[in-house]
Amino acid sequence: MKTGTFSDLEIRQKENPKPIIIHIYTDWCSVCRIESFNLNKDKDLVKTINENFYFIRFEAEKTKDKINFQGQEFKYLPNGNSGIHELVLALSKNKTQPAYPVWIILDKNQNLVEYHEGLFKPEDMKKKLKEIFSL
């Protein structure tokens, strides 16, 4: 699956506005690993996402870069040996401890159209994307 970054996103959205899928995960999350494996195996879903969306994989606890998104700057919040990125907390409904993985789907104007915590099976994602965007 083609992935991008938040800094790429701003430029790409100006050139060619598309809906955005943000996948928030952590390296230690076993559900996240299983989910990524299953999603990447589904060739139809990969093709749909690559052709119709901007896709960002966002590691919640290791991404330390400052990120500008929707006119705000977000930074990494260290906490001992680990930490979390402010953007994860801003995007998550649980502002203290998000449940991973988190899926955020925005329309091309960056309005939230779907929020999903936990496992998102390929068939459920395809159904949801078709329902929202008439693919």
Textual characterization of the structure:
The protein is α+β, with helices and mostly antiparallel strands and 135 residues long. Helices cover 37% and strands 27% of the residues. The chain contains five helices and eight strands; from the N terminus they run H-E-H-H-E-E-E-E-E-H-E-E-H. It has helices at residues 6-15, 30-41, 43-52, 86-91, 122-133, and strands at 20-25, 54-59, 67-69, 72-74, 76-79, 82-85, 102-106, 112-117. Strand 3 and strand 4 form a beta hairpin.
Please describe the topology of this protein.
Blueprint: H1 6-15, E1 20-25, H2 30-41, H3 43-52, E2 54-59, E3 67-69, E4 72-74, E5 76-79, E6 82-85, H4 86-91, E7 102-106, E8 112-117, H5 122-133
